[in-house]
Write a structure and sequence with these properties.
Elements lengths: L5 E5 L3 H13 L3 E5 L2 H11 L3 E4 L8 H11 L4 E5 L4 H9 L4 E4 L4 H15 L1 H4 L1 E4 L2 E4 L4 E4 L2 E3 L3 H12 L1 H12 L6 H22 L6 H9 L7
Parallel strand pairs: 1-2, 1-3, 3-4, 4-5
Antiparallel strand pairs: 6-7, 7-8, 8-9
Helix pairs in contact: 2-3, 7-8, 9-10
Length: about 230
């Protein structure tokens, strides 16, 4: 049986927490509720949830600090849910490590949609796919598509691309540490080039110059898609 995604709700207002809890369960999610920051952080470390819904104004340990501590060790999506609605509050919340920010009073339909969106992005167990912008990696079929076009990959190329897609930040960080100050891009570029040049050539041959190359797709993944040609 397929595992249900686990959502950790850290919210000190018990009525709101119960409401979110019941709605998520109705959508077939497993849920755990904590009413303060310390317990929430402890539950996170114990259970490793797929997503966190986090209030900011929590007793014992505030939500900003909870988000910072989670983000030091995990890329689990964090949706802040709070009554604090100023631009400065939103910037501070997102900079603390949160992925999303929703202001109370809120629409439960919007919260559920945001939960689904973040889980699609980061949790292959939910969708069977890893999506990064226009790049789609089908984990079950071991197929890669970009702009709707299938890209032919060898087994090794697929494994490398999947690695970059799942861990774009950590992969880039490791590459920088290995490369040293005089050759900042050497380790990353050599890996990318050797792994993707063959597939890139096959893609161009099958579809002409307009066919997307694996080299550019891999670059998009590794650079967090800040710019993608």
């Amino acid at each position: 049986m397929e595992r249900k995604p686990l959502v950790l709700i850290v919210e000190d207002e018990k009525e709101i927490a119960k409401f979110i809890d019941l709605e998520l369960q109705a959508e077939n999610y497993e849920t755990v509720v904590s009413y303060d920051g310390v317990t929430g952080l402890s539950k996170f470390r114990e259970l490793n949830p797929d997503l966190v819904v986090l209030d900011l104004m929590l007793p014992v340990l505030d939500g900003l600090e909870v988000a910072r501590r989670i983000r030091k060790t995990s890329n689990t999506p964090i949706i802040i849910l709070t009554a604090k609605d100023s631009v400065d509050d939103k910037v501070t919340g997102l900079d603390s490590g949160a992925d999303d920010y929703l202001v109370k009073p809120f629409s439960i339909e919007e919260l559920l949609a945001r939960v689904r969106a973040h889980l699609r992005r980061v949790n292959p167990a939910v969708t069977g796919e890893v999506r990064v912008a226009d790049l789609v990696i089908n984990l079950e079929g071991r197929e890669v598509f970009r702009d709707g076009r299938r890209i032919e990959l060898s087994a090794k190329e697929f494994e490398l691309l999947e690695l970059f897609a799942r861990n774009p930040s950590s992969t880039a960080s490791k590459s920088r540490r290995r490369s040293g100050p005089s050759t900042p891009a050497a380790a990353t570029s050599s890996t990318s080039t050797s792994a993707t040049s063959g597939a890139s050539s096959r893609a161009r041959a099958s579809g002409g110059s307009s066919t997307p190359s694996v080299g550019s797709a891999t670059y998009c993944v590794r650079s967090n898609l800040s710019t993608c040609a």
